[in-house]
Write a structure and sequence with these properties.
By secondary structure, the chain is α/β, with parallel strands linked by helices. The chain has 2 domains: about 140 residues, Rossmann fold; about 180 residues, Rossmann fold (3-Layer(aba) Sandwich), CATH 3.40.50. It is about 30% helix and about 25% strand. It has 10 helices and 18 strands. The chain has a 7-stranded mixed β-sheet, sandwiched between helices. A 7-stranded mixed β-sheet has the order 12-11-10-13-16-18-17, with helices on both faces. A two-stranded antiparallel ribbon has the order 8-9. Strand 2, helix 2 and strand 3 form a beta-alpha-beta unit. It is elongated.
Length: about 325
């Protein structure tokens, strides 16, 4: 993924960086091209585990949270408005030089530019590839800052930018209500988010351990605040790569299915394949999904079976039992 607006701004577009000092990068995604910037001065700030691991593997300095002061900051705009404002407020508070904001039109860059112009003198914009880049120095953004996770009216703790930050996700609520009382002793919640579904799993009798696997560090922090049960273990990990120490009795999931704004069923399909690798023979997976998502074939391929066990007009609840290797071989032959 290229960064054409940044390249244009630095190559004659009027943007210049301080000659020395660290540069903070907020919101960069794996595969994004940062070669227009001096790599040895960059600190890539991300709590999303796949992005964190990708930039670390590429030789960048990565961190969950900023430390100290920065000579400049670059903010790649996220989709969530509150999260975007919080990122900019944090960048301004920690930066002695320019704060650069880059975003696509679909990520709300136009409305963000309007909001920024009401507060500071903006440079730019640089227009390219269906987006814009602007930069500025200073300004008062204290009212945009977020001090940490905040409680919802019903007591759950969430944070800007996490999935279903404004309340309980209806698909997760539907799945929680459909889970059997005797789900098993060893269970994992893949893509656990801020912990609602995990809390409902722990209500089931017989659950001895529950692994919450979540790639967003902020969401996992919220889950820790929401769940104090000693049976719960929290894992900051890519759910498609994480594996338990001991094979599980059940896996429960409401997997993400968007990449930026595009539906990407491959993410959920990867979750399904990962679940099959975590379960003991006879273990069961439970998944909730929008009705248009094609997960049945992935379940049949990984488990040897798939059935719809509940749902409504918007969502379907699918389940499958992991067959033994011999049973799967027999089915194929």
């Amino acid at each position: 993924m290229s960064a054409p607006r940044l390249e244009l701004a630095l190559a004659g577009g009027g943007l210049s960086l301080p000659e020395d000092g660290p540069i903070a990068v907020f919101g960069a995604r794996a595969g994004m091209d940062l070669t227009a910037l001096p790599q040895d001065r960059l600190v890539v700030l991300t709590g999303f585990r796949p992005d964190h691991d990708a930039f670390t593997a590429a030789g960048y300095t990565t961190a969950l949270a900023p430390e100290g002061r920065f000579a400049a900051a670059l903010v790649f705009l996220p989709r969530a408005k509150a999260q975007a404002r919080a990122m900019i407020a944090e960048a301004v508070a920690l930066t002695d030089g320019p704060v650069i904001v880059d975003g696509a039109r679909t990520d709300g860059i136009e409305s963000m530019i309007k909001a920024l112009r009401a507060r500071v003198a903006l440079n730019g914009p640089v227009n390219k590839a269906h987006g814009k880049l602007v930069w500025f120095e200073g300004g008062d953004f204290d009212d945009w800052a977020v001090s940490g996770p905040t409680p919802l009216p019903d007591g759950w703790i969430t944070a800007p930018g996490v999935f279903s930050a404004d309340g309980i996700d209806p698909a997760s609520a539907l799945l929680a209500a459909a889970l059997p009382d005797k789900i098993g002793g060893r269970v994992a919640d893949l893509g656990a988010g801020w912990g609602y579904l995990a809390a409902r799993i722990l209500d089931r009798p017989g659950v001895r351990q529950l692994d919450l696997v979540e790639a967003e560090h902020v969401a996992l922090d919220c889950a820790r605040a929401n769940i104090s049960d000693p049976r719960a273990a929290f894992h900051w990990a890519d759910a498609t790569l994480w594996r338990p120490a001991t094979a599980l009795d059940a896996v429960v999931m409401n997997p993400p299915f968007h990449q930026n704004r595009s539906a990407e069923p491959g993410i959920g399909q990867a979750f399904i394949r990962a679940a099959a690798a975590m379960l003991r023979p006879g273990g069961r997976v439970w998944i909730v999904a929008n009705r248009h998502l094609p997960y049945e074939a992935a379940l049949s391929a990984a488990f040897g079976n798939a059935e719809e066990v509940g749902g409504d007009n918007r969502f379907k609840i699918l389940s499958a039992t992991l067959q033994s290797r011999q049973a799967r071989r027999d089915r194929v032959t």
